[in-house]
From TrEMBL:
It holds the Pfam family GFO_IDH_MocA. Residues 6-125 form the Gfo/Idh/MocA-like oxidoreductase N-terminal domain. This is Gfo/Idh/MocA family oxidoreductase. Signal peptide: none annotated. Belongs to the Gfo/Idh/MocA family. It comes from the Bacteria. InterPro entries: Gfo/Idh/MocA-like_OxRdtase_C, Gfo/Idh/MocA-like_OxRdtase_N, Gfo/Idh/MocA_oxidoreduct, NAD(P)-bd_dom_sf. Gene3D superfamilies: Dihydrodipicolinate Reductase, domain 2, NAD(P)-binding Rossmann-like Domain. One of its GO terms (molecular function) is nucleotide binding. It comes from Agathobaculum faecis. Residues 163-309 form the Gfo/Idh/MocA-like oxidoreductase C-terminal domain.
Length: 315
């Protein structure tokens, strides 16, 4: 007998959804892509034609009536708290794009709701699932590096720039180094809601040291991570390559050649692996790597960085 397919729905049909989720979900043989939801029905219908979802709807009530096993929340961050809470209350497992809420209070409430309902909530910290980041993690096995340097830079600022973009780097630093004991940070701004840069020095509980650099005054978009420890180093240039070195040799892995020149952003940036991980957890009853409880710790650390820098916190 064929295994029952997971009935999957997606809320949100913006850039991230169209580029990194809607092309991926139809690839899986164990998925029945039941429906799409958008605030404007015509937007959902247009996306439906592109990805082959069975139905398009415009309300949460119509969405949950589709009989879903799980749902992907890919809407703007200010919508996450309400939509995630509603879905969990309806007994639906949820994958949500980061952040799970714009305040720590709401994030804590959502994490508690996930624990209380017993439904799965995975937050889309997709960088953890990127092949180059996973390869760097494997360098240290069950251990961790002693020095972590993470940068995410862009050529222009935006509203709450550090909260919006540095959260991925903060999560990766926890992924590699564990929990953080102490935070010191600096920033520069004319308007505190549109900072020019934020830098932070992190002291991990295991004695490791980390440096976060989030510049919004750089020449181009850039994400890099350096890991050093045990006389080994890993240099990640997101999302394309990772170079691993020791005292004797250097080995570089580049994604595009491995994919015969056809490497896609959803694969290189970890979206495909993250989606597959969530679906497997739903099917097998397992806890996602970036579940609500773990994701809350990343939100809390980012709040500590914002406060140390003198920026508006996640109140």
């Amino acid at each position: 007998m064929a295994e029952k397919k997971l009935r999957v729905g997606v809320i949100g049909v913006g850039y991230v959804s169209k580029n990194n989720f809607l092309p991926v979900l139809p690839r899986f043989d164990d998925v029945e892509f039941v429906g799409l939801m958008a605030g404007k029905l015509e937007n959902a219908q247009h996306a439906q034609r592109l990805c082959g979802a069975q139905q398009a709807v415009a309300t949460l009530e119509a969405f949950v009536s589709l009989g879903l096993d799980c749902a992907f929340v890919l809407t703007p961050k200010q919508c996450h708290a309400e939509q995630i809470s509603f879905l969990l209350e309806q007994g639906i497992d949820v994958y949500s794009e980061k952040p799970m809420a714009t305040t720590l209070k709401d994030a804590a409430r959502i994490a508690e709701a996930a624990a209380k309902t017993g439904n799965k909530l995975m937050i889309g910290f997709n960088r953890r699932y990127a092949p180059v980041c996973q390869k760097a993690k494997a360098v240290y096995g069950e251990g961790s590096p002693e020095v972590i340097i993470a940068q995410k830079n862009r050529p222009a600022t935006e509203y709450r720039a550090t909260l919006e973009n540095a959260i991925h780097m903060v999560d990766l630093m926890r992924y590699y180094g564990g929990e953080v004991k102490d935070v010191n940070a600096l920033t520069k701004f004319t308007d505190p809601y549109y900072e020019t840069f934020t830098t932070a020095q992190l002291e991990f509980e295991n004695g490791a040291s980390g440096m976060l650099i989030a510049a919004r005054c750089s020449g181009q978009w850039e994400e890099t991570i350096e890991l050093h420890g045990n006389n080994r180093s890993a240099f990640i240039k997101m999302p394309d390559s990772v170079t691993v070195t020791d005292a004797e040799e250097q080995h570089k892995t580049a994604m595009t050649p491995l994919a015969m020149g056809w490497a896609k952003s959803e694969d290189k940036l970890g979206f495909t692996n993250a989606i597959r991980h969530f679906l497997d957890c739903v099917r097998d009853g397992k806890t996602p790597l970036t579940d609500a409880a773990d994701a809350y710790k990343t939100h809390e650390l980012l709040d500590r960085i914002l406060r140390a820098a003198g920026l508006p916190a996640m109140d």
